[in-house]
Amino acid sequence: MTMNRRTLNTALAAAALSGMLPLSALAQKKLVLGFAQVGAESEWRTANTESIKSSAKEAGIDLKFSDAQQKQENQIKAIRSYIAQKVDVIAFSPVVESGWETVLREAKAAKIPVVLTDRSVNTKDDSLYVTFMGSDFTEEGRKAGRWLVEKMKDQKGEVNIVELQGTVGSAPAIDRKKGFEEIIKADPKFKIIRSQTGDFTRAKGKEVMEAFLKAEGKKINVLFAHNDDMAIGAIQAIEEAGLKPAKDITIISIDGVKGAFEAMIAGKLNVSVECSPLLGPQLMQAVKDIKDGKTLPKRIVTVEGIFPMEVAAKEFPNRKY
Length: 321
Ligand code: AHR
Prior knowledge:
Layout: H1 5-17, H2 24-28, E1 32-37, H3 43-59, E2 62-67, H4 72-84, E3 89-92, H5 101-109, E4 114-117, E5 131-134, H6 137-151, E6 159-165, H7 171-184, E7 190-197, H8 202-216, E8 222-225, H9 228-240, E9 250-255, H10 258-265, E10 271-274, H11 280-291, E11 299-301, E12 306-308, H12 309-315
Helix pairs in contact: 3-11, 6-7, 8-9, 10-12
Bound molecules: alpha-L-arabinofuranose.
């Protein structure tokens, strides 16, 4: 007979009360969660890490945390070490979508449930993980596209767009691009004239935007950045090139971090599509539910909005990340 956590706790409590087990045995039975984080590449990621650490503490879950510095091999190593340590649950945000089958099979063979947070994997075998919780990145790209189409609806000539993509092969980079293109392709005046990765970082966002400006100069009408950090780096490049961000070049980004709100309030960023990093409480609940033997939905989607610069000052005090 398999015993879920609730049954086990009840049995332990009964044993402790009858004097068969010392009461300290109850206190020792803490759930252990191994979490393999992507890295610390953005303001979003820092908020995500903080959410996971603080909610583990609050939930009384013993968290083993590792930072993969945006390298898949480091995440795989961390997952293997969690398997070796026989943690109760493994959770991770896969840096890229592909290449996870082997390690996920190892976790399955060791009977350790896996939860995907924030980013997904592109395996066909969805028995390799219990649930995937996080944003709908394709919809975020569509929201960015719809905002642009509406903003430029009266524009007659071509609208030249440059795109700063996220990490190559990552779910948010693939899906945000797809969602954005799906919307803008309805009108041929929208043209993506340059598209390159800025790896979700400010430094790379600035560097790549400098190259875009060098190559295309004043031809650029719009910047679509897959996250706020790259947009903030690009804003610096635009200003250094003697142009006015959000005026000479319309800037759209994704995340809705405080840095983006500050840029919007300063009149330098037009809009940020929300992507919430506050996944910690949901993850801890899922860990407890799994160990209690509950069935979780395969997909848990985060509900999110969109913030144009006009509402930034009013919304800023409500922002939690
Ligand atoms: O996976 C979520 C993305 O990763 C966020 O948009 C980005 O800022 C982060 O680095």
